[in-house]
Model the fold of this input.
Amino acid sequence: MRQIQLPRIGTFEAWRGSAREFARMRTKPDRVDWYLEGDSAGFLITETGPMSEARHKVTASKQFLDLARTVTYHSAKDRFSRLYRVLLRLQGAPGLLKDRGDAEVAHLEKLAKAVRRDMHKMKAFVRFQEIPSGTDRRAFAAWFEPDHHICEPIAGFFARRFADMDWVIATPSMSIQHKDGQVTLDPTPASNPKLKDATEDLWRTYYANIFNPARLKIKAMTAEMPKKYWRNLPEAELIPSLIAEAEAKTRAMQEAAPTLPPLRAERIAAQPKVKDMDLLSADTLDGVKAEASTCTRCPLHANATQLVFGEGPQDADLMIIGEQPGDMEDLAGRPFVGPAGQLFDELADQAGLDRAGAYVTNAVKHFKFTIKGKRRIHQSPSTGEIDQCRWWLAQEIRLVRPKMILSMGATALRATTGDGKGILKRRGALETGRDGVPVFVTVHPSFLLRLRDPAERAEQEKAFVADLSQVKAAI
Amino acid sequence: MAKRTLQDKLAILSDAAKYDASCASSGTSRRNSLKGGLGSTEGSGICHAYAPDGRCISLLKILLTNFCIYDCAYCINRVSSNVERARFTPEEVVHLTTEFYRRNYIEGLFLSSGIIRSPDYTMEQMVRIARSLRQDHLFRGYIHLKTIPDASPELIEEAGLFADRLSINVELPTDQGVKAYAPEKDPDQIRRAMGNLRLKKAEYAEKTHTGRRKAKFAPAGQSTQLIVGADGASDATILQNSTRLYGAYKLKRVYYSAFSPIPDASTALPLIKPPLMREHRLYQADWLMRFYGFEADEITEKQGDMLDLAVDPKLSWALQNRHLFPVDPNRAARDMLLRVPGFGTKTVSRVLNARRTKTLRYDDLTRIGANMKNARSFITLSDWTPGQSLDADSLRNRFAPPPEQLQLL
Done:
């Protein structure tokens, strides 16, 4: 048995170099072991003498090296030989680490997990106390007792976080020091400096008051904050009394007689609350919009974010009517701002049609959708929903009194003419609408968006632009 | 009245903040203070302490003030309550945050507030604190700001540039509930504000026309909270609402908070023992929807509208859909493996990795980390079969806790 001593700082690099050499000679795992400087070697009889001359190729994946680095920080004595055994097996089975069912791999992962947990708890439970500083940088000190050799891998975390102060974290095996932005590890064992800090009182006040006595769950606390940490946590001394008083406090809340509101409440309640809606008349678009925003004529209001009403000048000659708001319109509260709206703007521009001069709205004012996973998928409104919502569209037509309506898609066609069937045959025609306004029939821009074939899409876009040009010429 | 000390104020304003369940400090952009300033965020959140209620303490969770002009029946801070009132100055909040942070007590600040004077005035005060932390103190830690739905969009936009996370609490799962118990709040306005946040975040994620990246807007996203057990909303209603919130506003989290006794409670909402198990089951169901491919309807469809309190929702679903089992872990597709009770997302990815190199047996699954106590009745392997047990009427009893004698008094 060969026994190799490893340094306390730089342990992993030293083990890696040494293990690589033994692996090149394919030394059997039971012929070699490693121990940490300051720990006692495992065996009394140490083998010396010439080593094998054989030199094999040794490879190790990054995954293994990362795992090995973490495992070397563990305090288990046999961690080095366990790593070496897996390193040798890896030479014949490169995919070995993917198999978490393998007992040796599973054990290494278990060790690594314990190290990661220990590091995580150290990040969480180190408590700094302020100490006098001779310079303009503030100085702090902490005492912590980790289970594993984690000072080296964790130093960087504290350096990145507390860069503008000097600090020392002392542990029973070594200390991490941070001075003027430089981190050093001091491998001499330290002892608890037992410091006090006035801010701890504020912290304890916070801890006691953020606790909710009505939901005592002691096991949930100790699972994450085991008692072994309590002696170095300033807030932990409160835990027994918080638990003891919890039930009485909860009962007192439940049994307390109701009280009269303070005078302040009456004063605040007496302040006049004017709702904008009360001031608006039903003969303006704003008034109708306010009224429509409380509409419950059909169930669509329940799931949508908000009503999306039309917008544009009240004296517009042209009214453009689409189907219903989509995902984007529903969030923004404005019509035609999503993908279909953007395409429309682009094509209207080509046709020389001025969207800003027109009144733009939808036949149905709330977004109808189903949820697939985490996305809202558009659903066409039913004829019932279109007919319910027509009431609001009729108000808009009544107040804007456009010379012409551009009706896009079957939904708008049903709302404006009472019949949405056969849109492709009726497209390009000028029909008489239910409100006495001429209705120009065309398709909805989202129809263009759905076309997969580029040639067909280009052709349809051209036809759509031609439609828009015809409308422009007519008004 | 004697002037309150900082300690008195901290006691009042942390007591007033504890009914907000959110505690996350994870998932934001990575930052450190190597080039100046104080603090860092490195992806995963850190819970710096745990209170005896089992909740983690990650952030300094306080109110700017617990004075409030609203009268929400469920809230400790409603205008008609006689609790003690206090108000921090912005400087005091900044001082507490940085001094706690330097001692490694916290990951950052979670600031909320009662509404004083007007929504804009209150929001402006909160934004001022966040701005001071970021600009005067170069604070790189985590900031979570509660957003007031009625505040002006400009203030909310500024808040998003300083904060990691913004949240707006829906509190009551139905619009009727909000109208009944929080008369000053407008459920439409809350949804509009959430919609606005999603659009703002998308707007900042786009590059400028010169190809530059814009500032980060609320990099840890937005979240909300629903109170469970204050009104009559069923679990099915709550989960449907969550689905809608996740889908429409891309929320990072929906928190469920069991309605819990508060000092000087309103007569409108009688105090109950907080339904902690129901809250727990809702969180489990929420996880099933977010990470396991379940739809809200599937989880509640066969159990009335309430989740089974005795067994977890995944097990409950499996017990009601036994015709889909047993599943062979060596062959089944990922989405079916995710539906096996006792298999978590990590177990599933390990199974998929390991089965490429060998045929898995019972002991392999144990080592992989599957909870075999739950899984074994629903899987079949070369060395394991659930036999008749999968069809036995008594299967559910094996998982449900034994019935307890009720106390007479």
Chain B has 15 helices and eight strands. The radius of gyration of chain B is 24 Å.
